[in-house]
């Protein structure tokens, strides 16, 4: 059962992300929120604190809580969002092209990234992401078959995350990320519309289930001019 403060947090967060509560709007007072949700002040404060920690609101002493502009978070470094979810959020035409889908035995590199043995079986998925009419992201996903026994082209064209959570009933919890800028490879040049760019922004993701199982390693390779990689940081004194 979801805690009351998390349910309130999720509801307000959803309203902010959907534009039902616009940026710079002042949220109702703690007393008003207590009456609206029929909960204690402590529950409301926990929900507001979580909204503040995740960059949705700013609490100003003596004035209240104000909604921040979340549109500046084009590609959250600290977020764990599928391409489908990102596309829906930014509201542009997008398309996924599956270039490779196969089962492989891991080499030493993948054995190290996924913490598997040479006898394990891994799904390899290579997908090109189109936004507008430009191919600007190359995703190379490697998933442990132990956790994801079946993948199809339809699943990969839609959303692997959605399939894992909705169909397999697994809970994707968190990811460790590494971001670097690298020289574009021949594969990048073949698959992407790089135009005059010779470098690529590479985001490596090590993705875990809620039981701490590492089930996916991804290299997401982005044309450098099309994304801002941003985060929201709050100083805790």
UniProtKB/TrEMBL annotation:
Q: Which Gene3D superfamilies match?
A: Chorismate lyase-like (3.40.1410.10), Winged helix-like DNA-binding domain superfamily/Winged helix DNA-binding domain (1.10.10.10)
Q: Which domain of life is it from?
A: Bacteria
Q: Where is the HTH gntR-type domain?
A: 2-70
Q: Which GO terms describe its biological process?
A: negative regulation of DNA-templated transcription
Which SMART domains has this protein been placed in?
A: HTH_GNTR (SM00345), UTRA (SM00866)
Any keyword Membrane?
no
Which keywords label this protein? Answer: DNA-binding, Repressor, Transcription, Transcription regulation
Q: Which sequence ranges form a coiled-coil region, renumbered to this chain?
A: none
**Record-linked SUPFAM superfamilies:** Chorismate lyase-like, Winged helix' DNA-binding domain
- What Gene Ontology molecular-function terms does this entry list? DNA binding; DNA-binding transcription factor activity
Q: Name one Pfam family in it.
A: UTRA
Record's NCBIfam families?
trehalos_R_Bsub
| Protein name listed in UniProt | Trehalose operon repressor
């Amino acid at each position: 059962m979801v805690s009351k403060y998390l349910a309130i947090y999720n509801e307000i967060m959803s309203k902010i992300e959907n534009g039902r509560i616009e940026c710079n709007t002042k949220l109702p007072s703690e007393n008003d929120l207590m009456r609206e949700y029929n909960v204690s002040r402590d529950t409301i404060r926990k929900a507001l604190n979580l909204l503040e920690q995740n960059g949705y609101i700013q609490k100003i002493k003596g004035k209240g809580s104000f909604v921040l502009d979340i549109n500046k978070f084009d590609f959250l470094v600290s977020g764990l969002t599928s391409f489908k979810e990102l596309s829906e959020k930014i509201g542009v035409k997008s398309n996924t092209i599956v270039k490779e889908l196969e089962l492989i035995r891991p080499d030493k590199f993948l054995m190290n990234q996924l913490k598997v043995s040479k006898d394990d079986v891994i799904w390899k998925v290579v997908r090109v992401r189109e936004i507008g009419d430009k191919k600007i992201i190359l995703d190379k996903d490697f998933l442990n078959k132990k956790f994801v026994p079946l993948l199809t082209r339809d699943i990969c064209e839609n959303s692997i995350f959605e399939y894992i959570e909705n169909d397999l009933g697994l809970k994707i919890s968190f990811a460790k990320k590494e971001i670097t800028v690298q020289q574009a490879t021949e594969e990048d040049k073949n698959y992407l519309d790089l135009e005059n760019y010779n470098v690529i922004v590479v985001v490596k993701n090590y993705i875990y289930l809620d039981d701490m199982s590492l089930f996916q390693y991804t290299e997401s390779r982005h044309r450098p001019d099309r994304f801002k990689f941003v985060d929201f940081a709050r100083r805790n004194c």
